[in-house]
Amino acid sequence: MKVSILGLGWIGEPLGHLLVENSYQVIGSTTKPEKRSILQGNGIDARLLSLGPEPSGEDFEELFTADVLYVNIPPARRTRSDDFHIDQLGYLLEMVNKGSVKRAIYVSSTSVYPDLNREVEEGLLLNPENTGNPVLHKGEKIMQSFFGDRLTIIRFGGLLGDNRVPGRYFSGRLDVVGHAPANYVYRSDAVRSVHWIIRNDLWGEVYNITAPLHPAKREVYEANAKQLGFAPPVSYGNENATWKLVSSAKFLATGFVFDYPDPCTFPYKL
To answer: Which SUPFAM superfamilies does the record associate with it (predicted)?
Structure first.
């Protein structure tokens, strides 16, 4: 089986390595010429592709001939307009039309859910007015309209692991929101979840991918500080800030087992 990974980044690259280890044919995109030869040396047929939003690069047409197309191109909302990601998807689907892609995975985020101060699941009806992330919500709809039941959408929680430590971002800070439940997922579990979907033919679905335990963020920050030896937040506040608890029960029902179910015990490498 041939899998094409659009975005050999923080999740896409280890996903490529995992798929190669499991005898998949893997092709993928990178924007960095210096990274291409390294990836190719590890069995990943890396091609240069940038979506700016128009496609540019080298020999990237082959990316759109695959059994599975994995699309992980997060919107650059801080530096680009909301239309930029939508335009990227438009050009991407033009290339899909010229190629032959059987199925696709679109990486979205749990940020599409509004803060309702309760648990939220995949069945919650989202629209442009209530979504927490209008760009990704629109991206989901565009991809669903094109692929139909050949598409599965992954809504990742906050991606952590290695040097991504949530407590570091709030070390020594005042009035940190600490009461909200943590909707996090460890990097290797995120990678394994994609392989699980492909291996088990879980198509035409939407899945939340978050660790099944949801301690208060305060507990996670304190655990990080104790584990890694930096200062915790100085104080917590804004107890009226809204929140959501994103359920992963639907994905757990497929038989997937998280190696790291508790965000308080995620291991890190600094």
So the answer is: NAD(P)-binding Rossmann-fold domains
pLDDT at residue 77, as a whole number: 64
104 in Cβ contact with 144 (< 8 Å): no
**Tell me: the pLDDT tens digits for 110-140?**
999 999 999 999 999 999 999 999 999 999 9
Residues of the chain with pLDDT under 70: 77-78
Q: How many CB atoms lie within 10 A of CB 241?
A: 12
| pLDDT the model gives residue 270 | 82
| Angle 84-89-90 from CA coordinates, rounded to 5° | 95
Cα–Cα distance, 256 to 168 (Å, whole number): 30
> CB-based contacts of 240: which residues, under 8 Å, 6+ apart?
none
Q: What torsion do the CA atoms of 114, 119, 121, 123 make, to the nearest 10 degrees?
A: -80
Are 157 and 246 within 8 A, CB to CB? yes
Distance (Å, rounded) from C-alpha 262 to C-alpha 245?
14
Rg of the chain (C-alpha set): 19
Contact at 8 Å (CB) between 17 and 38? Answer: no
The amino acid at 104? A
Quote the pLDDT of residue 80: 77
Q: Specify the pairing of strand 55-58 against strand 45-51.
A: antiparallel
Show the domains of the chain with their CATH numbers: 2-162+184-214+245-263 (3.40.50.720)
Structure tokens at 109: 């985020």
Q: What is the pTM of this model?
A: 0.96
